[in-house]
Amino acid sequence: MINYLLHIVVISEIFALFAMGLQLQIGDTGLYNFGHVAFFGLGAYASALLTVHGVPFAVALCLSLGVAGGIAWLAGIPILRLRGDYFGLAMLGFAEIMRKVFLNEAWLTRGPMGIPGIPRPSAFGYSLHGLPGFALFYGCLLLLAFLFTHHVVRSPLGRVFHAVRDDELSAGAVGKDTFRLRRVSLVIGALLAGLGGILWAHYITFISPSDFTLNETILALLIVVLGSGRGIPGALVATFLVIGFQEGLRFLPLPESFGRIIAPVQQMVFGLVLILLVMRQFRKGLGKGELLAED
Amino acid sequence: MIIFQSLLDGLIAGSIYALFATGLTLIYGTLHFINFAHGELIMAGAYLAYLFMIPPLGLSPIPSAGLAILGVIGLALLTDRVVFRPLRNASPLLLLIASLGISLFLQNFAQALWGAEIRTFPFSLERGLTFGPIVITRVQITILLVAAVTILLLYLLLKFTRAGRAIRGVSDNPRLAETFGVESEKIIRNVWILAAGLAAVGGVLYAADTNLEPHMGIINLVRAFAAVLLGGTGNVWGALIGGFVIGLSENLGVLVLPLGYKDAIAFFIIILLLLFRPEGILGTRWGVR
Fold first, then answer.
1. Which of A54, A164, B171, B266 could form a disulfide with B226 if both were Cys (CB 3.0 to 4.6 A apart)?
2. Across the interface, do B109 and A268 touch by the CB < 8 Å criterion?
3. Average pLDDT, chain A
């Protein structure tokens, strides 16, 4: 039971990182990134491939962050020309392409068979074993990433992000390079997603292209929407609730025939919750642009 | 001469994508958001037709398709009544997230009912007819004909009927249309009927040409979106042409690209467009309103 709870804690920590990136993009900069999972997947694949081929964990971690951030930097060149919902759909397309790359470049990624036997995190001769260790180590990384993001949002840079979100035209008119700002936000969000992906890969120890679908982005979106306006504890509770519901049913002893429909039914519930949250936000009069805005 | 065959296949696929794209752009023109669940209307059309075709009902394809179209129109009107109508005048981004929720719900509803496996319509296999270098099956001929007739009907409807003119008026200039006494709720209902009908016809044709699975909506949404971008937003005829461009590029593209990336071609076109025509085609300003 305690192991089970710790498992949910570890997964929650990973998704908190992942969702934090999306919160920065959607909530603070107004970038509706529906392809967020692409960077989660890139981080996971890069780190898994490097460590499987013998690169030390710490080195792989840095390189993989570079991969996720670098590809976001490049992808931003064309896609950031789009705004609002158009940007969102183009990013969705981008994430689908990344999944195709994981699937089709079998010489590198082993295609649909995935990468098994990803080593556990280790450094200076210590390697991580057992759930409490994971929960603690990932918790520390989450805290560090949070302090960094919090600092960014509170800094002058963060205030300009808000300006871009609220009125890009005016922000541009007073001389802010809005393209660069949106790009910086996209890259920071991608780094957080990448870190989440890296930690995911080394915890689960097996990844395959089917781990990185739109469903994971929606999970993060749900966390962001659910936690919006409720501060840091709200965001943590939202993460724990969503992940608890997602992971919780996986371990119940359910009959086989029931198990087949449990995953889609879970996703149906997530869909309904998303709709209800949006409708509530709108009724509360938050519907005109201030959605998910946290100042 | 494989290129002729690819051109024909591209034309068939393109005629189907054109139906997806015109529906998506009609909704955009009137309600000013991208309906994320448009792909699921396509999927619903395919699955409903499948449901009527297999035992115990075992209807023949035409009545099955007719019932499927009615079902999808009903579904679209239901989502509008329950979700989108209470959200009128919400920001496009709220509407987008709500439609994402609907998309997720419907996709998984289909998966819960029919499972995730790939299915095909219960057509018996047939040998294609050969014309010189190209081969075409009777099903494919039917697809081309149905798509052509549907597009023609859409044209006549928008051009010559009162309801059609009202739709065009609202998407050109909603304020002005209102001053001339056009009731927007009525227009919105008509647009949903039209868009859902187009999605359903397209979905049935798509399933007849390829196959069905619960997640077929996403890739077709991306295709339709690419076609809409190509044609200029809210521009029905532009989206139509965009659909054909996507269909042809996919089928010609696989002559040079690995087959596994066929679904990625629509996205590559979006990227190329953004890199080399950043100002947009037909003066569109990418999602800036």
1. B266
2. yes
3. 83
pLDDT at B277: 67
Distance from CA of B129 to the nearest CA of A (A): 33
In-domain check, residue A16: yes
**Which of B107, B222, B229 has its CB closest to that of A92?**
B222
Q: Do B104 and A291 touch (CB under 8 A)?
A: no
Give the torsion through C-alpha atoms of A284, A286, A288, A294, to 10 deg.
-170
Domain count for chain B, please give it.
1
| Domain-located, residue B288 | no
Express each pLDDT in A207-240 by its tens digit: 999 889 888 898 888 888 888 777 777 788 888 8
Specify the pLDDT at position B93. Answer: 79
CATH number at residue B70: 1.10.3470
User: Please, what sign has the CA dihedral across residues A119, A122, A126, A128?
Assistant: negative
Q: What are the structure tokens assigned to B13, written together?
A: 């696929």
Distances (CA, A) of A95 to A33, A229, A267, B10, B92: 10, 28, 19, 25, 22
Please state, in angstroms and rounded to a whole number, the distance separating the CA atoms of residues A178 and A165.
10
Least confidently predicted of A56-70, B241-255, B258-272: B258-272
Query: Which pLDDT does position B81 carry in this prediction?
Result: 93
Residue B179 lies in a domain: yes
Q: Which of B112, B271, B278 sits opposite A261 (nearest CB)?
A: B112
Say how many domains are in chain A. 1
Contact A79 B271 (CB under 8 A): yes
Kindly report the nearest CA distance between residue A104 and chain B, in angstroms.
6
Structural domain of B129 = 2-283
> Is B92 domain-assigned?
yes
Residue A44 lies in a domain: yes
Closest alpha carbon within chain A to B36: A89
Q: Is residue B289 part of a domain?
A: no
Summarised one tens digit per residue, pLDDT across range A4-17 is 888 888 888 899 99
Taking an 8 Å cut-off on Cβ atoms, the answer to whether A84 and B94 are in contact is no
Q: Is position A56 within any domain? A: yes
Distance from CA of B262 to the nearest CA of A (A): 10
Q: CA A217, CA A222: separation in Å to the nearest integer?
A: 9
Q: How far apart are CA A215 and CA B108, in angstroms?
A: 11
Could you list the residue range(s) of the whole structural domain that residue A198 is in?
A: 2-210
SS3 B130: strand
Mutate to test the interface with A, among B20, B84, B100 (most CBs of A within 10 A): B100
CB contact (8 A) between residue A81 and residue B266: no
Name the closest residue on chain A to residue B266, using Cα atoms. Answer: A93
Across the range B267-276, mean pLDDT stands at 80
Q: Give ipTM to 2 decimals.
A: 0.85
